Fold each of these.
Amino acid sequence: MPEEKDEILVKRFLEGDERAYNEIVIRYRKKIYWHARRMLGNHLDADDVTQEVLIQIYKKLKTFKFNSSLYTWIFKITSSKSLNKIKRTNIKKFLSLDNGHTQFLRTNVDIVKTFEDKEKLNRLNEILKDISARQKEVFLLKQFEGLSYKEISEITGKSIGTLKANYHFALQKILEKMKNEE
Amino acid sequence: MKNKEKILKYLAGQMSKAEKDQFENEISRDAALEKELNSANGLLEQINKFSDVETDEAYFSSLIPEIRRRLEKDKKRRKVYRFSVAFTSIIILILAFVYFSGNQKHEVLLSDSEMEKIIDEIPQNLVSTVLSGTVDLRGAEIQIDEFDLTGEYLSEFSESDFIYLLNSFSNEELNELSEYLTETKTQVEK
């Protein structure tokens, strides 16, 4: 059976059909999780953000007017919450509030099954480590989600010129790092 | 322009139509440039494979029940007052004090006039909850004025209180705090 369009799911939800929300979650949960995961670099924080995003979708869907696609709207929430998470973590570190137990959980709790896969994600974290959160955001949306600058601009609220510059600098650092590792 | 810079501009979509045509022409004539571009594209393809991993599907299946449980809990939870941006100023002060009182080698950075300015910006009748009942800012003003910067005033604030506060901040407040602390840290390090 073909999938219902996002518009129809939203309409059903607004008419009180709770199952429509479940379908939206099923459709977008992995995209939300993986964007957050790549932004934040660990499962614990990605899980926090994923749950926050899904709760916000439930609460704010009634205000969604289809001025953008549901996909863009969801990514806007995910990106914003991921950036906020990074800021909160930095503030906690700055104020020495990020304790050892949380650090331990960040490193050890995961949904990735095999050692090889964990190594792949560690490699990705390592490559993305030295670029700023804003540059990382643009790079990930373009590289992994295949979004255009126009769509990324709708998500981030930044001009296309700024996004291109961010992508350029991200790319420069990433390629240099990968070449050096070869 | 060096090859590397040209390739970055090309991949980032920063070339005009004319520049792009010229670059693509150049590729067909310059084997070294073509090789460099292919190498960059190869590395980008490699990056995508880093996320191609097998995960525990039970996690994704558990999300809907977990979200439903949290939504239900939310409905029952008492309403928490939101902080206003003005109130953030006082929290910034408190957080800054915590930081600096925990770092003996640093002096507190706010001058009396800076502190007065921040205090003046706080509406006198503004009241907030979340910590322990209500905080009368008029009272807080007196306490801050008398605060001797040894950290005693903060003894009632636990780590979890601060983390709770941090999680309560709006985007605007979070940006304000983040910028303030970064700026303050830079000043200290100079």
Amino acid sequence: MAEFPTELKYLATHEWAKLDGDIVVVGISDHAQDALGDVVYVELPEVGASVAAGDEVAVVESVKAASDIYAPIAGSVVAVNEALEDSPELVNESPYEEGWFFKITPADSAALDGLLSAAAYQAVCDDEDH
Amino acid sequence: MGQLTPLFDEHGRLGAKIVDFGGWDMPIHYGSQLEEHHAVRCDAGVFDVSHMTVVELHGVNVEAYLDRLLANDIKRLNRAGQAMYSGMLNKDGGVIDDLIVYRTGNPCLVVVNCATREKDLAWMNQQAGAFDIDVRERNDVAILAVQGPAAIEKVSGLVTDAQRQCIAELKPFQGAWSDGWFIARTGYTGERGLEVILPVEAAVPFWQALLAADVKPIGLGARDTLRLEAGMNLYGNDMDESVTPLESNMASTVFLDGRDFIGASAIRAQQEAGDYPRLIGLVMQGKGVLRAHYPVFSEGEPVGEITSGAFSPTLQLGIALARVARTSAQMTVEIRGKQVPVEAVTPSFVRNGKAVWKPLEHK
């Protein structure tokens, strides 16, 4: 069964976001990596890029398909996970830790409150599965 | 619920992810498609391909019938049970299906694709009358493909003495009946291996014996990346009735000399005109993945599109088959609006675990 850590916020498009000090870390959920299958390539945003909530900022390519990754909130990209360049499988192996995609300095961290809770996101996934 | 193979419950027990494939519920992977791919390249894997259609052609004129039905020349085969890959064409030279025929005499054994089953059988029956051929589908068999460098040795340890002897005597691309099983040195991976057609009731015990011998179960996902690395076409992706074998990297399966197979005159005309698109290979120079339907450009001009693409687990780069009007040293593929450099290569990437692709000469 997929894991849905309760300390994270989620998008219905399967990204998670975590406030870490004054930085927001973004990745894709356990449910998403399982549905994608083996991840073989990740295209990450430029460090320094300004993003708006809902922007397509990254792409994850699995053996099955290419999927857009959306920015959960507005802000500027301060770091990307360079380890994914040589080890895209980290997205499958550790979606909530080592498989993170990028970090954003949020324009307004209160915007995170508008995202889905773990329970609400899990309900979205259950709906998709049935 | 789609159609189920005799091994469906086995797939479920192994935790396979099941998808619809041509109306059949089939395993796409059992956990990791990449690990399954590597298992076949490095050791041995087993595929349930019982969704494919097995047909027997009964009648004394079976070779005359096949000479008319197929673009490849059955008369060139000189060994009993020798296998031949061929397109079955319509009058315009379009590919109705690609198939394997084993020259087993009367009856002759043919394996065709599952998604094309109905139109194949209808076409084969339509042509059969003039040759007094009885086209009979075999619904009482399963098909397992065991592929990889250790595949033949592992199967040989699990079969009857007669079957072991049969396997030892088979040449590549040859099959034979033994103790009720048809065993052939054929496959869809570019590795050594066997394809086994066996009675439904024997399928589960043989499958379980293979797994106990550490042969890994392989889903259709890895089957697709393995066949693409081997440069083998997938019907419906790389060719269909709208293209001819010459446009589909199947020219080596077309024998025109003095023959009158269905579609021959259209193929002759196309060959004489010479100006037709080719199915080539592409390899990506940077990181990323090539996928079907991405547009292909030569020196900035659109020349065609990718028909099959993937990330090659063996080569660790994006590879594809593409149908293009021409090639050059400046080929690109459009990926999400960006032009990405690729190299035009021979449409065969990996054989027996090794990279084999070569740059194309441009014309």
